[in-house]
Each structure stands twice: as C-alpha cells, then as structure tokens.
Amino acid sequence: MAIYWLIFLLFALLALVSKRSLPLPNGRFDRSFKNWSFTLVPFLILFIGFRGEVGGDWGSYKWGFINQLELSFAQKFVPTGQIPDPGFVVLQHLMGEMGFTFVSVNVASSLFFVIGLLKFCKALPRPYLALAVAFPYMIVVVSMGYMRQSIALGIVMYAIEFLITKKNTKFFIYVMLAATFHKSAVLFFPLAIFVSTKNRFFIFIGAILLAAVGYVTFIETSVERIARYYIGQEYSSSGAIYRVGMLVVPSILFLIFKKHFNLVINEQKLWTIFALTSFPLLVAVLFLNISTTVDRIALYALPIQLFLFSYLPDAFKKSSQLIILFIVIYYAVVMFVWLNYATHSCSWIPYTNELIGYKRVWTC
Hints:
With 364 residues, this protein is mainly alpha-helical. The chain has helices at 2-17, 34-37, 40-49, 58-68, 86-97, 102-122, 127-145, 147-164, 168-179, 191-195, 200-219, 223-230, 240-257, 265-287, 291-298, 303-311, 320-341.
C-alpha cells in the first residue's frame, strides 16, 4: 500500500507549501489547468486508468467487456436484468471495435473523472489541498472501484461551474451526459431550480421535463431491480454510516462559516443545498434499510468536502497553515483506517499496474 501513501503525501506536501490562488475580477478562480496538463493529468490517468486488477468491481467490469465483444451493437442495448447505461455501452463498443483490451475502458473512464476533478479543484482557492482531501476516498475508492459512477461524478463536477455561472443549458446537457453513464446523475436536474436567480419558471419546467425524460430513459425499467437489491435486504454498504458522517462534518462547518467565504449568490445557494442534503442522508442510513442506496447517492455529495476544506483555512488567516495541517492529518487518518480496516480494501492491496505487467495475488 506504499504507493497510496506516497501519492497522498505528495498532495499533502503541495497543500502545505502552496499559496492560496488569487481570484479573478469576478471573484471566481481560474479553472484552466495548463500547468497540470502535462503533469497531474497523465500522472492520475497512469495511476487510475492503468491499474491492474485493482478495485472491488474489476472482475465484473472486465468480464462484462469481454462478453459484449460477441454481441452486435444493437444487442448491447438489450436489457439483461436492467437497462444498460448507453454512454458506457458506446464507450465499451468503441474500445472493442478498435481492438483495444479492457484496460482501454479503464483509461477512458479515468480521463472523464480526472478532467472533471481537476477542473473542479482549479476553481477552488487551494487546489492542492482539495486534491489531498479527494485522494483517500474520491480518487482511491470511487474512481478505482465504481467505474460508471466515477465517470458520472467527473462530468457532474465539470458541470457545477456552469450552474454557478448561470449557464443552465450547458449544465443540463452535461448532467444528461453523466446520466448516460450512471442513471443516478438525473438527481442533479432539480438543482437549477433552487440555484438559479433568473427565469425560475422556465428553468423549473425544463428541469421537470428533462428529469421526466431521464427517468423514462434511464431508470424506469430498473425500478424493480433497484427496489429488490438497493432498498431490500440483499445489498448493504457496511461503511455507509462512516462515509455519510464524513459529509456531515464539512456540511456543518459550511453552514457555520459560509459568510466568511465571499461566495457569489449562486455558489452559496448550491453548497447550502449540498450541506443540507447530508442530514437526511444521515437519517436514512441510520434508520432505514437502504444503506447501499444512500451510499451511492452520497457519492455525488463528496465535492462539498473538497470545497469546504479548500476555503476553510483562509477564513482564519492567522491560523491557516495550522488548519491545513489538521485537515491533512484528518484525511491521513481516514486513509489509514480505510486501507487497514475497510471490508473490501483487500481488493486494492497490493496496488499493481498493467504497464508493469506484474499480476497481483488476490488477498480477498
């Protein structure tokens, strides 16, 4: 597990030594990551995309890719238990038609996630601190374990800036694209209703129509399966309570200190919604038998951790470095606990890479 610690410590060190980004005249931060294009982008794609037999769903995704090679393009869209995610079907089809192996699907998936993550982090005052916060769970667990949902999460993170800057049409388009990779992304359509400050009636109508289309297209034929597996007794996410609890902490801090962050009105509304969402998720995971459902929905709330902890140090300028250190230590503890005590962490240990050619010995 040394590779995980080395990368986390790299981000932590960069977070400790880097200065706060300077805001643009409009109060926002520059999302351009030209200086990362030849460093962090290929580095993270190498780490995530070329992983070898790492992640809890590696085997099922690999055999799914192999099995679909024998089917025609039309047959790949025929449900075999649930309606396929069309974006992911097309992605696998293109990789197969070009003669690439399953690793190519991982690489392409990681590209969606990495671009979205880095764009999101660059729009924050302390991008490297955001990356340090993202690494233990969002990068290691989500991007390397939930391939389709990590793609959707990456696209949604990319789209959030459009919502903040009132480019609602682009936001809707990107969310619909995210939903083609994981149906649950349709949950983001209503956000525009609450965040937008102009033309609320038309935005409301558009959101309802798009949500209806998204439901019919992506979810309707899967309702029975979702009810049986995700709401019933058959699936359970044993760590859901801890992961949702990790959302509650930054949510409470945001609600307390948001006036210190100098946010534009749309941004403040957006993150207030994210913060308030964490509390019903906590209630649901504590008192209802839907831990897996809550766990999957909570993945989309993860960006509030990156946002809050990137802004928090500068709300207390005299103690900013100390706060950064505390944040880094907190997430180091999170990673230590997950790597050593999580039920399925054995699927990530040891880390291996396809470019090296070493085949891991399964410990699960």
